[in-house]
Every structure is written in C-alpha cells, then in structure tokens.
TrEMBL record:
This is Aldehyde dehydrogenase family protein. The keyword Ligase does not apply. Pfam families: Aldedh. It comes from Streptomyces melanogenes. SUPFAM superfamilies: ALDH-like. Residues 14-482 form the Aldehyde dehydrogenase domain. PANTHER family: ALDEHYDE DEHYDROGENASE-RELATED. InterPro entries: Ald_DH/histidinol_DH, Ald_DH_C, Ald_DH_N, Aldehyde_DH_dom.
C-alpha cells in the first residue's frame, strides 16, 4: 500500500492545504502510512462558508434524493471495502478483523441506516386544543403539528478510535436530516475520513454539502467550532476538550451533541455467571486495545466471588496474543501513539503507587517496534484511587470489591462519568432494579452487547444529548411548531 496523500475537501474540490502536510504513522510499525493536510484557520472558515451556502438547496432536496446519495455512498464503501479496511488498520493499529468488521463495515451500515432514516416522517401531530375567547382572539379549536427541521451547518469532530463508524454515525444522520457538514477528524488517523469523502463525492453529494478539514494543530478544531457559519457541533472525544468546545458553543448559542469520556462500572453480583462476566469485561483488554469509552474498565465485584473473578480475568489475559494487528490470531494491537502509550503506562505506575496490586500485565511487551501496552489487571483497588476514578483509555481494568447491593450502587454512581455501566446477576429482577438506579446513559444487563436503535449518550461528564437509530435524526434537527385555527 503506497502513501496516501489527500488534499482538503472544500466546496466539492480537493484543495491544497495552506499549512503543508504532516505524517500519519502506523502504530504497529511506526512507519509512515500517509500525509495528512494541515489546514489554515481561513480554510476551515471557507469550508464552513461553503456548507452555509449549500444548506438552503440541500435542506430542500427531496428525502428520496438524500436517501439515494447515502445508499450510493454505502455502495462505494462496500466496493472499496478491502483497501479501505487496510488503510483503517494501518492508521489506527486495529486488528484486521476489527478494521473490517467494526470500522469499515459499520461505516457502510450507518450510511445504509440513514438512507432509510432520510425517509422517516418529520411531522408529528399534536393533540388539538380548545381555547376560550380572550385577548389572543376568538374561541376555537387549534390544531398543531411538530415538524423536525435541519439545524443548519454541523461541525463533526470525531475521535481517533474508529475513523469509520464514528464519522459515519455523525455525517449520515446529519445529511439525512438536510444539514450540511464540516468534518474535522482526529489528528492521529484522519486518512479514512478522506476516503469517506471520496465515496460521498462519487455518490453525487452536491458541492459544499460535505467538507473535510484536518490539522495537527488545535487551531483547526477551534476554527471549526467558532466559525460564525456553524450552527451545531457534534463532538466525540475527551471530557476536557468537550468542556472547552461547550464554552465556545455557549457564547454563540450553538447546538451541541457531546459523547465524552467513560469509566464504565461492571457490577458483578455473587449469583452472576462469572465466566460470562469475565468474557465481557475481558473485551477491555482487547477491543481497540481498551481505547473505547464504553469499556467496562471499573469492575465492582461482590467480595464472595472477588478472588474467582480476578483469577479468571488474569487467565483471560494470558490467552490474548499481543502483536502485529495484520497477523492472523492477533487479539491486542498497539495503542494509537507513543504519547498515549506513555500515558497508559504512567497510570499503571500510578496504580502501583496508590496501592493497587498488578495481577497481570504492567510491563511493556517485548516487541521491537510499535506502541504496544500489555493488558493489565489491577486488584486491591479502592474507589478513591485515580486509576479507578479517571479514564485511562487503554487495556487496563481495576477491580474494587463490595459487600451488598447498596454499596455496589453507591460505588458505581460515585464517578464523574456515566456513559455505559453493566450488571451481571443471575437474578434478572435484581439486575434490572440495579440498572434503573445507575446514573448512566446506558446499562448492559448480563451483556456488553448494544442495540443499535437504542439511544446512546451519557449522564454527568460523559456527555450531552443522544444519538444512534432515530435518536440521531432527532439530535440533528430542531423542532418547529405550526399552529392553525380549526374552527370557531
């Protein structure tokens, strides 16, 4: 695979970047995969202006036309599936299976889903109201309808852990609703998003409807947020960055959709299927090498089964092959960068200093190249430790014991985060009772699986708003009320 050197995509054209290019490294080999364009602030503003100019006509296109374009984009992605997956694997360090099944395939599926979404009704009836005569006019029966309208220009700022599913989950529903977009991918792995732009261009998306700008400097993202042409910002990433974006959006009264950090609590009761819980929690060690905000990284386990669960989790780690994500059988690939590897390793060392016991992992894998972190299990933890409270975003799990249901709920909710929590119990009634008490946007009961039509988002510092399924169409729309007199 040769170097991929895309230009910026602004107003339907591939534009030379003002700031030159910067290197994108393969986290597994540390070799250059491609060169990403470095946009200037003026070019980001130009992209937003192009989206503004395109909004009027795009928002008035027939839903069937928007659906057809999204469907054709999915066709192109499926046609180019293999090279797209190879690029995604190379720039993210994901295993081949993950790049194919969870990145490119999910990206295509989301374009298919929102092709159908473009055809969903946008009007809903409101119960008629009988008004007495008064200062507002004569007596009468007033009908009303609530209509979902597109927000306008949406800036989509995406995370590095999935450069297909995450941008597609923003761009596709935004376009389906009649919005135009400026996409600003994560600086670590933006190349796949340019492939997505190519697919949309081939599918016939009009000029200015989709724009892609990139840069390694914070100024690029800042411009994509503060441009006066932007009406809404959809962001996936860290809570700290999300807070800064929200401050700017607040000054401009811009709509926000924020999917931020997570520190998922996995509550394991004494009557749980411990093996099933271990398999679910164990995905933290392998899936995206723990670089996923929904991971069950904070394990709260009943003291009576604590030792058994820790022993089985340690054994689970022992069966995971760490290494080249392109090789068959590899389960754990690298993390995204050398800087992030150092961050994860610093948390493991911090855990040691805080008194946690390193049951497995804790040492850098003996590989010559690549940003690898050993899957690590920390036991003897307490809820006040930083390794328990802060998002590490790597293959690290911390285990905290509890004695009863009340303590389990209190520990789970004693967190700044509230994205996805999990409950394992053989008593389904108890599992659902506890789930209802957890302050999290979603709760998995005896599973880490997701229903991809269910609303997704977080409580507390884990975000603002909900997307996925039809909820994403709602997220990228404003509600308008139309009222009329029905008689007197």
């Amino acid at each position: 695979m040769g170097l991929y050197e895309p230009k910026l995509f602004i107003n339907g054209e591939w534009v030379e970047p003002d700031g030159g290019q910067y290197e994108i490294l393969d986290p597994a080999t540390e070799e250059v995969v491609g060169l990403a364009p470095e946009a200037s602030r003026a070019q980001v503003y130009a992209a937003a202006a192009a989206a503004r100019d395109a909004f009027e006509s795009w928002s008035r296109t027939a839903p069937e036309e928007r659906a057809a374009i999204l469907d054709r984009a999915a066709d192109v992605i499926q046609r180019e599936f293999t090279p797209y997956a190879e690029l995604a694997r190379a720039e993210t360090g994901a295993t081949t299976a993950t790049a194919r099944g969870m990145q490119v395939a999910v990206g295509a599926a989301r374009f298919r889903r929102y092709a159908k979404g473009a055809l969903e009704p946008v009007e809903s009836a409101v119960v008629p109201q009988i008004n007495e005569a008064g200062p507002m006019g004569r007596a009468g029966v007033f009908g009303a309808v609530a209509v979902r309208q597109p927000v306008g220009v949406v800036t989509c700022i995406t995370s590095y852990n999935n450069p297909w599913a995450n941008p597609a989950g923003k761009v596709a529903p935004a376009l389906a609703m009649g919005n135009t977009v400026v996409v600003k991918p994560a600086p670590q792995d933006p190349l796949s998003v340019f492939r997505m732009a190519e697919a949309l261009a081939e599918a016939g998306v009009p000029r200015g409807v989709v724009n892609v700008v990139t840069g390694s400097a914070p100024a690029v993202g800042e411009a994509a947020v503060d441009s006066p042409d932007v009406d809404m910002v959809s962001f996936t990433g860290s809570t700290a960055v999300g807070q800064r974006i929200a401050e700017v959006c607040g000054r401009g009264m811009k709509r926000q959709l924020m999917e931020l950090g997570g520190k998922g609590a996995a509550v394991v009761f004494d009557d749980a299927d411990v093996g099933a819980a271990v398999r679910g929690i164990g995905t933290t060690f392998s899936f995206y090498s723990g670089q996923i905000c929904t991971a069950p990284t904070r394990v709260l386990v009943h003291r009576s089964v604590h030792d058994r669960l820790v022993e089985q989790l340690a054994a689970y780690i022992g069966h995971l092959k760490v290494g080249d994500p392109a090789e068959a059988g590899t389960v754990v690939g690298p993390v995204i960068s050398a800087a992030h590897r150092e961050r994860v390793e610093s948390y493991v060392e911090l855990g040691r200093k805080e008194g946690a016991r390193v049951v497995a992992g804790g040492e850098r894998p003996p590989l010559e190249r690549g940003f690898y972190v050993a899957p690590t299990l920390l036991a003897d933890c307490t809820n006040d430790m930083r390794v328990v409270r802060e998002e590490i975003f790597g293959p690290v799990v911390a285990v905290v014991p509890f004695d009863d249901e009340e303590e389990a709920v209190a520990l789970a909710n004693d967190s700044d985060y509230g994205l996805l929590d999990y409950v394992w119990s053989g008593d389904v009634a108890r599992a659902f009772r506890v789930a209802r008490r957890l302050r999290a946007g979603g709760v998995g009961v005896n599973t880490i699986g997701r229903n991809m039509e269910a609303p997704f988002g977080g409580f507390k510092r884990s975000g603002v708003g909900r997307d996925v399924g039809s909820y994403a169409l709602h997220a990228y729309s404003e509600l308008q009320s139309i009222v009329w007199p029905g008689g007197s």
